[in-house]
Amino acid sequence: MLPYVSCEVACSSISFPQLWGKAGMGDSEPPSHSKDPMKNATFYVMESESAGDGLTAIEALVCSLAETRWRDGKRILIACENEEQANRLDEALWQLPANAFVPHNLAGEGPRYGAPVELAWPQRRGSSPRDLLISLLPQFADFATAFHEVIDFVPYEESLKQLARDRYKAYRSVGFQLNTATPPSPQTTV
Length: 190
Description:
With about 190 residues, the chain is α/β, with parallel strands linked by helices. The chain is built from five helices and nine strands; from the N terminus they run H-H-E-E-E-H-E-H-E-E-E-E-H-E.
């Protein structure tokens, strides 16, 4: 198993081979782990811009994905663009029905090792290991390479699609297997 690298280190410009050398592992390259799963990045292609309730369609999908993936046993980091977005998602997660409750906290708050779902932004980063990164960041985040699974989004707005294309290329360049998906249809109640 690979040692956990804190976000402060993973977010810096130090490459992983340099980290291994500094960690005293002897070699300048990390050891081979043939049992490590392939890194996957899934891009959800959005079909609308807003979802109502003060959330964008992407933010509403993030809440739904966080609920589903947490129920699958994943510890999740939601990397928000800014503190305002993190607070908006925090409030939206608290407003979910009781049967859809998602234990979460803003980075730096909550239990010592964080709740299963943590909301972070560039000025306040998560501090405990996570299984899944849900990225709302406009640019590729170097720390994404510390995750085996990433969820990202292709916005509906034409002006933002180029940023998504750039992130897609960046994930591919660092060895992620790439997938695209369409968001599930909103469930209607009768």
